Amino acid sequence: MGKLKNIRTGRLLIRTLEMKDKEAFFKYRSLPEIYQYQSWRPINISEIEEFINKNISVCVNTANSWLQLAVCLKEGQMIGDIGIHFMDDDYQVEIGYTLSPEYQGNGYAQEAVKAVIDYSFIELKKHRVTASVDPDNIKSIKLLEKIGFRKEAHFIKSFNMNNQWYDDCIYAILEDEWKPF
Fold first, then answer.
1. How far is CA 83 from CA 16, 131, 165, in A?
2. Is the separation of the CB atoms in 10 and 16 below 8 Å?
3. What is the DSSP string of 78-123?
4. Which of 39, 132, 18, 141 minimizes the C-alpha distance to 84?
5. What global pTM score does this model have?
6. Residue 129 pairs with which residues in a beta bridge?
7. In whole angstroms, what is the distance from residue 66 CA to residue 63 CA?
8. Cα–Cα distance for residue pair 123/146, rounded to 1 Å
9. Does a structural domain hold residue 158?
10. What is the crossing angle of helices 45-56 and 22-29, to 10°?
11. Distance between CA 134 and CA 31 in Å, rounded?
């Protein structure tokens, strides 16, 4: 399918993460309040550069790959990111999202997640979108539930991060349940 086309909303531009995003990406992704719920914590800017170089080569709908998208204000300022995991079948994707703390609480995450879900169902013709979330990440759970996701599973100590076991909840929505915005 090739590269992702830019996704636009009323206030946002969502596009493939690029090298010009490295400083902003590193700045918020290396904050403790951000990485506490994530398996990846960047150590330095060269690790970010390596991540972005790999990301640039990912083609949309390549089985078992992640594509990281930059969430930007219309003016171009990067405020967060969304990852799309293209599963090993043609019918499902998993999403993950992160928003810089200074931009939280303004509805940007919800707007960006809804746009990527629209893209997944309408453009990519997916049947199901899932999200994996730490049960302590209340903000993320509220966002998913607000836009129509349902909790499908709660796995006990199923995820190992930094030599510690964590619970993992799976939320999902089907294409025929989705209400585009």
1. 10, 10, 23
2. no
3. EEEEEEEEE-SSSSEEEEEEEE-GGGTTSSHHHHHHHHHHHIIIII
4. 132
5. 0.93
6. 93, 173
7. 9
8. 23
9. yes
10. 120
11. 17
pLDDT digits (tens, 9 = 90+) for 7-20: 999 999 999 999 99
Bridge pairing between strands 12-16 and 65-73: antiparallel
Mind listing the pLDDT tens digit for each residue in 60-90? 999 999 999 999 999 999 999 999 999 988 8
* Number of domains within the chain: 1
Indicate which CATH number applies to the domain containing 154: 3.40.630.30
**Per-residue pLDDT for 160 more than 90?**
no
The answer to the question of residue 98 being in a domain is yes
Considering the domain boundaries, does residue 38 fall inside one? yes
96 contacts 60 by C-beta, under 8 angstroms:
no
CA–CA distances in Å: residue 71 to residues 111, 150, 163: 10, 24, 31
Cβ atoms of 24 and 32 closer than 8 Å: no
Amino acid present at 168: D
Q: Which two three-digit tokens encode residue 109?
A: 């995450």
**Percent of the chain's residues with pLDDT above 70:** 99
Name the β-bridge partners of 130.
94, 172
